[in-house]
């Protein structure tokens, strides 16, 4: 990335000056933005990071002057190319959104009108610029070509539900570029997309940026995305920018305790659970509307003292263009990551849960859809097996089959402690049911919202552990304590709890019956990084104490690396590669794993070539011939891979790969001319 | 698509058969025999027996049942027990009159209530919205025959606006017919306005808060364009479902209104048939109302599938 352009003399593409914004709730204005100031130069990419509730999206929408009806701007200005956005007439505002600034949204599926064809929606952007119907249609086609959609004609004719999320995001970007905007606001543009798709969308934005010279305001909670995309970054907390600078400066040399906390909560630099616990940020974000004539971070800061509690910190310059709002910027080095904790996670020698030749075929409209194809897996006591792969690769089907929610096809079997367990959960004995438990991604919908936490846990304890009365009450209290839930939390209902606390309740529920193996399906992907860190620590500690095994499903490579002992990589219902975490990250890898790992945007700024995964994942109903991955493989050998399905071979001891290529062949680097970070 | 239609039509036929069965059972649960009802309490026993024999109502119930179902499927709806003439000769003119009244009510209700719903949605939680919502709630909580009676008393009797008897003399001009039909139609309009308006409002509010509406606004469209091109198309699909169901209710509610205004429609015919135990007439009228209900629902589903590309009628792609 180039350095930020020289600022003198130019009018910023976007300048937000001391913006104070409140939401009126029951007649009382409650402050959300407490004086936000930053600017984005023409052609510059500026990132805003922070956890949910910090006001970054509110700021992004304020830049477009799109606010809920109860929002009031209490002070400050929003200047786009020198024009005050807050003072524009309705007409001027429309003009501004048509030609000067546009936006790309988090969820492209929801952002497109489900009732209109893509062509109509894209052409509309050109119609309002005054083009005729025919011109607009033609422009729409060109717009799609511009965002590298290979077959615009086909896409124009489709409805949104017929396209993938990645494709729709390209369409949304095409619409955003219709008026040749000077400012592009991207609000979490890749959240919810697969890493491989995310990488493609980010590549596209990068290419378009150099082509259009539009200024970019990028909102993301994923620090890796910000690092690879932006020139400068602002770190937001509780409605204020607390640190700003170039991405290199801020990420490599953080100068605000919050930035440090954020960066340290993320499992990075290859840290593993055996190395140390993750850094967490204790406490909660201040409530919106709280008056804060102090440092906004004071309640959670390890360096806080009286001055922090009484005075708004001044801007302290760290280096050219890098500043922090902290009274103790010079003492920042006193914040240390957690000490080395030598948790010896000893993994048992016996295989407690074993899947042998487990397949699952769904019937869909008279067709067989193989979702799992002959899966062999074993779990040792106290072992975590990480499961990665794009959406649609069969990860969740595998989890559900293990739990007995899906019945495997004839011929496959699941063993617990060497004994065969019944296929269907409803046929299983209570000991088997309590042995297999699950923690879901969305704790909100997994917990009964009408019940108190105590009642939820009590029921699990009586159902799973089979204990009653005073003994059950004691067990509930013990569980709560192990999850760091207080007595106060036990009397609350799920909706009164934060996301992290809800996930703790869900974990407590799973552990009520002393499970042997817990399936964790993306348990932290909806959580902020500091909360994620606390949950990962909790899972690691529980495993250490209870010697439970985990099947850990995630799309976050850093998380899987931190927690897993072994990793399995799935594609189209098959395990393509299986090995210890060290083996997977050291390579050589199956080409699919290689592409998957290269797609992850790095927080650490280390440039590395990305292996593009072209095209979308094929339909399991109609898998490609030979090796199922050959249609997207960068090491494909035509004449072999498209004809013969490869066997699973051993690359090293305990490291297997379902590929024709040997370890030596896979170690040869591939070079790509395009797309380098 | 064809498979879907065949399936739906099959379902309609089965439902109609069940409906016919239920009507048959209910009618035969009522005390008294047909001959006695028609000929009156003073008729001789022999005459009553002879009459029953002529109609077949002296046969065992199971036999009567099979005969009535058989006739139904051969489109032989039989003769009225009461008049002796074919049932269809009685029903068709009544159906025509009811349809005329229902159509008028429909034409007035739909635009008014949809407009009110949109109006309220755009002013969500403001005074105008509250007025529409509460007025709608109040108006739809009152049964049609009460509204009809009030309208009759206030307008037709007190202010001499509109007619007490809604039966249109033959030869009245189309515009002149309004004088007769407007009051009963308004009784129905008042009853259905609230529900449709509130459903429209809910649909529009959901669409207004949808992400695609935000996209449209941030494209730079003005609020009118956003409303027409993006909000309404998505908002009206649930409204159409409601309206189609209302068509069925409309034909149910019309019975009371017709009675109040002494209008010789299908409802009046049905009520009389109940009183006289005129099974063929009753059965056929009930089936016709059922048929209208089901066909309108089917049409609504087809319309929704047309408006919403995500709905796949045949379950295949």
Structural class of chain A: alpha/beta
Number of domains of chain B: 2
Return Rg of chain B in Å. Answer: 24 Å
Number of strands of chain B: 0
In the CATH scheme, the class of the largest domain in chain A would be: Alpha Beta
Average pLDDT of chain A, rounded to a whole number, is 89
Shape of chain A: globular
What is the largest interface, and how many residues per chain? A-B, 31 and 24 residues
Q: Please estimate the helix content of chain B.
A: over 70%
**Number of H/I helices of chain A:** 24
Radius of gyration of chain A, CA atoms, in whole angstroms: 26 Å
According to CATH, the fold-level topology of the largest domain in chain A is: Rossmann fold
Topology at a glance:
The complex is a heterodimer of chains A (677) and B (317).
Chain A: E1 14-25, E2 28-40, E3 45-49, H1 56-63, E4 71-80, E5 83-84, H2 90-99, E6 101-104, H3 108-111, H4 118-127, H5 133-146, H6 152-156, H7 165-176, E7 183-187, H8 195-212, E8 215-219, H9 223-229, E9 232-237, E10 240-246, H10 247-252, H11 257-265, H12 306-310, E11 316-319, E12 322-324, E13 351-364, E14 367-380, E15 384-388, H13 395-403, E16 413-416, E17 419-420, H14 430-435, E18 436-439, H15 443-446, H16 453-465, H17 469-482, H18 487-490, H19 499-511, E19 517-521, H20 529-546, E20 549-553, H21 557-563, E21 566-571, E22 574-580, H22 581-586, H23 591-598, E23 648-652, E24 655-658, H24 663-667
Parallel strand pairs in A: 3-8, 3-9, 6-7, 7-8, 15-20, 15-21, 18-19, 19-20
Antiparallel strand pairs in A: 1-2, 1-4, 4-5, 9-10, 10-12, 11-12, 13-14, 13-16, 16-17, 21-22, 22-24, 23-24
Chain B: H1 2-29, H2 34-39, H3 45-55, H4 61-73, H5 87-122, H6 127-141, H7 144-158, H8 174-208, H9 211-219, H10 223-260, H11 266-276, H12 279-307
Helix pairs in contact in B: 1-12, 5-6, 5-8, 5-10, 5-11, 5-12, 6-8, 7-8, 7-10, 8-10, 9-10, 10-11, 10-12, 11-12
